[in-house]
Amino acid sequence: MVGCAVGPDFKTPEPVAASRYTATPIAEETVSTEVPGGQAQRFTSERDIPAEWWTLFQCEALDVLVRRALTDSPRLAQAKARLAQAEEQFGGRRGSLRYPQVDASVSSNRIDIDSDAFNSPGLGADFPLTLSLASVSVSYTLDVFGRNRRELENLQAAVDYEQFELEAARLMIAGNVVTAAIEEASLRQQIEQTEAAVDIEAQQVKIIEGLERLGSVPELDLVTQNAELARTRSQLPLLAQRLEQTRHRLAVYLGVAPGEAQLPEFRLADLKLPAELPLSVPSELARQRPDVRAAEALLHEASARVGVATANVYPRFTLSAQAGALAISPLVSGTPAFALLAASIAAPLFHGNELKAQKRVAVAAFDQAGAAYQEVVLAGLQNVADAMVALDADAKTLHDRAEAATLTQRAYGITSQQYEMGGVSLLVMLDAQRQQLAASLDETQAIRNRFADTAALFQALGGGWWAADASKNSP
């Protein structure tokens, strides 16, 4: 017997009413700069994000590393195990709710009989009896009010949640590896730039030493230049520390101990900035981000729990049957059989308002899940908007910093020549040195930000996992 299912029928939430990501329109194409990593990027809705979005950076070593992480990451192993648990719980419970429960039992007991207890002259001595019973019982609870269906709906939503949590974990791991590789490349370039500055300043020390021996400059200039050299050199250990810590993070993402990891070395020159940035419309974002889909699954779970709590208020009808055979030897010859059919009803009469309170709790939990879903959707829209604004600002920042790096380099060369000829003081030359190094490091940071924020945009848009599913389902 199948009845109607009480409680709300779940409906996928309506798409958010938004036609654009940012209040202030952003140009479809960023500005370009004539430096590595400075090409223009264009937002386009004509292309979809590939499932392996990190390959757009065109770095084979990065591709290999991300694939290793997606295979060996302990975090992904946890997510896969949680999904397996949810699937097994759903499968086991589905069988018990959809089909009758059948149990079989067999028992045999030996009973020693005292003949005096029968007070019968025909029984002259004590004798044993063997009592054997074999039976099969069947029971099935009718889903009159749809409680079983709502419970299965709840368990299926739990499976969906873990599936999307697994997709979110994959996206996070890939993003973490890409971001760490970009950070490593940036740190290597900063180290190289700082080492180059140390070499230049060391050469400057030799020049000043010669001038000081000739009496052209005071000893104070030599001491000051040596102090500046020591200050610049002191930045190297900190940069090296950050580089090693970044590689340690990469090792952990791969599920390897930091001391045992065999990792490639990344440089910014090895990465290519994607020229086209696929951009989905805001109304599609909720179907693409795995965290939003996971929040939707939690909302579905909460909806199903309302149905379960509502059905608990109504009676439950159970049909049962039992059949078997009984043998008592040697008293009774043959094996008499028996059968029993029964029907029962269990109806809640008085539970101190507990069942109605449980329903109200389930309704409140459903409202909470709905608000949480809306928050996750809005956060997703914010992530995309922030990434778009960052990419636009990154391109402009790099343009200005590249120009500043070029100008400070020229200024330092001119000032250094003037100092050797006595035209400017040492303080003027040292200031030019600092500005030149700072401008070079700022330019590297701007390039790094363009790569990192590009990866952040791909993550904010969901990472293209649906494209992988579509390729699996295509003929």
Can you tell me the CATH class?
Mainly Alpha
CATH fold call: Outer membrane efflux proteins (OEP)
Largest sheet: spatial strand order: 2-3-5-6
Structural class: alpha+beta
Number of domains: 1
Query: Which stretches of 5+ consecutive residues score pLDDT under 50?
Result: none
Helical fraction:
55-70%
Query: What does the average pLDDT come to?
Result: 86
Could you explain how this protein is built, in words?
This protein is α+β, with helices and mostly antiparallel strands. It is built from ten helices and six strands, in the order βααββαααβααββααα. It has helices at residues 60-72, 74-98, 147-213, 219-233, 235-253, 282-288, 290-311, 354-420, 426-460, 465-473; strands at residues 42-44, 101-113, 127-142, 276-278, 316-329, 337-346. A four-stranded antiparallel sheet has the order 2-3-5-6, with no helix packed on it. A two-stranded parallel ribbon has the order 1-4. The radius of gyration is 38 Å and the shape is elongated. The model has no long low-confidence stretch (mean pLDDT 86).
Give a topology summary:
Blueprint (H helix, E strand, L loop, with lengths): L41 E3 L15 H13 L1 H25 L2 E13 L13 E16 L4 H67 L5 H15 L1 H19 L22 E3 L3 H7 L1 H22 L4 E14 L7 E10 L7 H67 L5 H35 L4 H9 L2
Parallel strand pairs: 1-4
Antiparallel strand pairs: 2-3, 3-5, 5-6
